[in-house]
Write a structure and sequence with these properties.
With 199 residues, this protein is of the alpha/beta class. The N and C termini lie far apart (42 Å). Helices cover 33% and strands 20% of the residues. The chain has six helices and seven strands. Helix 4 packs parallel to helix 5.
Amino acid sequence: MTPESLDPIAHARPQRWSAALLRLAGWRLDLPPPPAPKVILVVYPHTSNWDFLWGILAKWSCGWPVRWIGKDSLFRGPTGRLLRAWGGMPVNRAAPEGFIQTLLAEIEAAPTLLLAIAPEGTRRHVPYWKSGFLRLARAGHMPIGLVYIDYARRIVGIRGYITASDDDAADMARIAQAYEGVVARNPENAGSIRLHTPG
């Protein structure tokens, strides 16, 4: 299936007001189209609440039906209903395995799904990424889009799409290479691009 055949991904009309806001703020988009109707979008670096603003404006501007994962505490009360309407999906960090199984069921049932995940899991510096995005990509047979928010050049973009292998270290090395040169809003908080190795 070619990117042009995706509906509504390839043919969605941009939301003019959100695109105008990005331009007024000096930001631009660099979003090569997804290679498949179902994609895991890894978002890195995530070091500031401002990342959400530029990310949601980018989502509305390009018109892609992106859904995104956030901690469940954000989805309480009226704000939660708004965030769900904007594509948010709450995750209970105390039970990540159950959430992954739920996501896999949704992935299987959906005709198209662009699922955005921030694998650092927090805006603070972390020594390694959470591995859920790799497990989802492998189990769902989905390519991984490497989304970046670069504050030095004011770009929200995708550095490319990769297919996960069975080698965690090799996959993470490719991802780290792709993100070279990307500057976070708070660079000291950008997480290390590697997975936790037990032992």
